[in-house]
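Annotators were shown the component list below and the corresponding predicted structure, then asked to write short factual statements about the assembly.
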Amino acid sequence: MTNKNRFTTLFSRFGSGTDQTDTIMKPEKKPPLGTMFWVSVGWVCLNIFLAITANLLPLKDPIAQDYNAISVGPSMHYLLGTDDIGRDILSRIIFGSRISIAVSFGAMFIAFGIGAPAAMLAALRRGRFDTILTTVMYSLLAFPAIIATISVLSFWVPRNLLKVIVVIGIASTPLVYRVIRTASLAVAGRDFVTAAKVQGATDRRILIKEILPNIMPILLSFLLIGIASVVALEGALAFLGLSITPPTPSWGNMINESRTVMSTNPGLVIFPSLALCLFILSLNFIGDRLRNYFDVAEVKI
Amino acid sequence: MGQYLVKRLVTLVGILFVVSIGSFYLIHLLPGDPAVFILGLNYNPVTKAALDLQLGLNHPIYLQYFTWIGHVLHGDLGTSFISHQTVISTIGRALPVEFELIIMSQILAFGAAIPLAMRSARKPDSALDRMLSASSFILLSVPTFILIVLLVLFVSIKLGIPNTGPSTYVPFSQNPFTNIMSLLLPSITIAIGSFVLYFRVLRSDLTGILQEEFITMARSKGISQRRIMWRHAFRPASVSLLGSAGVNIGGLLASGFIIQVLLGIPGLGFNLIQGINSSDYLLVQGIVLVVSAGVILINFMFDLIIFFVDPRIARD
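Structure shown to annotators:
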């Protein structure tokens, strides 16, 4: 009980409680997910939709400068106003979201693509394979990922979107591995997995048909929170000029560029910050609600 | 007990070894000649020869590692080819700033989190509890770099409080008051992040513990509420709090650079980014090593504290 939370970071709340699932009956009726949950889902979907269709929407060019409208406030023509060189803030925010979304989804695709199958297989096979892989992954986990990320990105020039995605993705893999392995271990020890083994099912079949569906809730909510963390991380990298370079807008570099003029044009820093925070908040909220919704042990309490 | 400590120490040394390889290998992860990375493209052949000799770049890679780790163990992280100062002296100047920032922020975070979590846990679902839980969830989603930008915008620019804005840092020995003022906003920003974490961990643990039978027992014996909270409930709850504090404080060492760069506070992170911007590879390597080792040592230290608070840990 006391040991359970020793590694309580933002992530490690996953994996707790799953070891009790087989002893506790599922409640008949689950509490509803709530309005805020669907509002958050809607907000995330809207962001993704806008990011994908940004080119088709009637938006102003995010890098076109209008010298007749320097640092103007919100108006009918410029819904959120313009920045210090006359670029439309709303359009820059929407085009900027593309970077955040591409980096976070791409990086998590890599991290889960490598980390999750490896972790599930390690949990199923155990033995030497598991020991070696887990030792390697846990050692990598000891290395501060953020420091590794920024030092690799800083020396690996010229930077582009793909490099940012790959570096963040690989740096996040050990964490994904740890979470998924903990979750899979609890499932791999259960009777239906043994039954499948006895019937001669292949590892592949057990992983896909038995283990994956059972760790899906944890995987899904961790994925969402992982995406949220990468959005924040990319923002921080862009803020330091280690992500996509201007003039291509991203939320992080917009906030960074606006620092010098924030006393005269506070909207310039507030709007992209708000976009970033609301996106992260929605993802965190969805992840948290899903975890509560599926986490049977917590429902009982 | 002794066995536990020995086991932990062996693991510690093992992890430090892995991290040292990681820091060393960093430059070899990238395509190209390491010497060119360190010196920049317009290098002088004479300096390159000197560097090859200093780093032993002509030798096989494992020999390079042993040469390097030998120097590191003697406190020699090399001399920067950019600033011509020893890396260790630069790090030595940055460490006190780093520690001051961490200590100030942690005093604020614990000072707020412990009493508030106690109040929240005593009356779950009260108005205060709901408000704190909701606001801590929202704050969890605000990245540090946004928090600090907004704080600077409102406190130093709108309210015009002196010495709190960017580049106001002066060393403590020069002017203690200005020094504290200039570290105030960064400390508050870091403290908010830590507070959210500590509050959530402590609140959920305390709520659970307060439902245990020994608490009911203590209540029935007429022990005062204050004594129950501090003596009976806080000690078991502090184990997970200490665990998350260890991870968190280690993380601060690694992620402190954003605030430091923004406000011009010459801590480790600030020097790291400066090293990156000036392509000072040896400085970056040195700081990566010191920070990674620091993170691990801090985690280890907290594990030891936990062990003394709750010796049952050693059993598994």
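Statements collected:
1. Chain B touches chain A through 59 residues (CB under 8 Å).
2. The two ends of chain B are 11 Å apart (CA to CA).
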